[in-house]
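Bug #77: duplicate submission created two jobs. Keeping one. Sequence:
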Amino acid sequence: MSESFADRIPAYMERISACLEAALPSGDTQPERLHQAMRYAVLNGGKRIRPLLVYASGECLGVPPEQLDAAATSIELIHAFSLVHDDLPAMDDDDLRRGLPTVHKKFDEATAILAADALQPVAFQILAESQTVSGDQQSLLVRRIAAACGSLGMTGGQSIDLAAEGSHLGKSELENMYGMKTGALIHASVMSACDLCEGLSREQRDAMDTFGCKIGPAFQIRDDMLDIEGETAVIGKTAGSDERLKKATWPALYGIEAARQRCDELFGEGLQSLDLFGDNASSLRWLADYIVKRSS
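Kept job's structure:
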């Protein structure tokens, strides 16, 4: 491909926006307030990192976008559901998300809880009703994404995160939490393309697995650094919230420079795993670079 992945991002953003729009009930369908809150949670912007990882991984493996749409949509809906819950007063108690009032501030706490709860089954409904993937592939995707968002993945990582507030975690404990809380869904974004790729070798699958495992914690470390170094108007959420909540983060426990170094190490290890794919992995390399060097 002569153009870069950056040139194709607008088309992918338009594609995933259309998929998300189609997946959600209209705001004038009863119960209107619930559906409006669901749409607000999903359609109010966002970088769409996880769907872009699905599509970039598909480019690497030669899987066409139409086969990736269901996975990309499902994963983004799960991500949106998790953000609504994370922002609740019982969790991180945040007022801003993507530069706008969080769902519980825009609507109310009960509606926010219900909206998040309703997004999760929609995510799996999209997979179950997909007409572009086989039944066996549907089963693989359901299992993968369910595991990524369950108690051994994203939800469990959030539980560890809450319990660790004000505590000191060892580096391995911290990265285990990162791997669950953030990394599991990012890993699923990468590996979902593998589930849809016919004839993938063990070596190729292992390389993608390594990339997915490395880039998730790198993303979270960068996010933690931005909480310290970023500005609220730029990052779209309240800067300094980790310090306010005494979160166990890499920069808080080991310093900003150590966090930067570890982020770079994970980035390098993730990129190295893509050497097997040569130029076919150029999209993933570009996206990985964006993930660890972004300013918002």
